[in-house]
Amino acid sequence: MSKPLPRSAADKGGEARTADGLALGLMARRIGFRMRLLQNLLGARVVAAFAPFGLRPGTFTTMALIAANPGLSQIRLAREGGLDKSALVAIVDQLEERGLAVRTRSVIDRRSNSLALTPAGEALMQEMSAAAQATEQCIRDGLSPAEVETLFELLERAYQIVAREDAREPPG
Fold it and tell me: How confident is the model at residue 14 (pLDDT cuts 50, 70, 90)?
């Protein structure tokens, strides 16, 4: 059983700490680091929740993005979804083998594949969505509905700010 967390940083001498009491020091004010701590906790829950489905990590994300964008190319899915290209190929191969997705030649660009979920893929994605939702339910229970909405709005704004900044900067 895990230790109860302090109600605020001030409860532990004014320092932000991990769940196990490690002082964060300068990292307490690093957005990326704080997001990574939360992602690590949620990620472990998701791995456990998805284990019964017997699919590779990243499969749910892949399925959800394909469902939201039928006909999406593998190249665009990898690029815009932040997915490793070789891992994505293996995920799509597994989805096809299990009859959960289909990959067809694009009518727009014959060099690329268009992706779509099958009805079985849609059904499994919904099951996985419920499992994923359960992994973060404690956050929704611990925040008000307005705070949850604000959290999503702030995450979206932060993403757009960084994406715009990266689009302006030449790589290098």
Answer: low
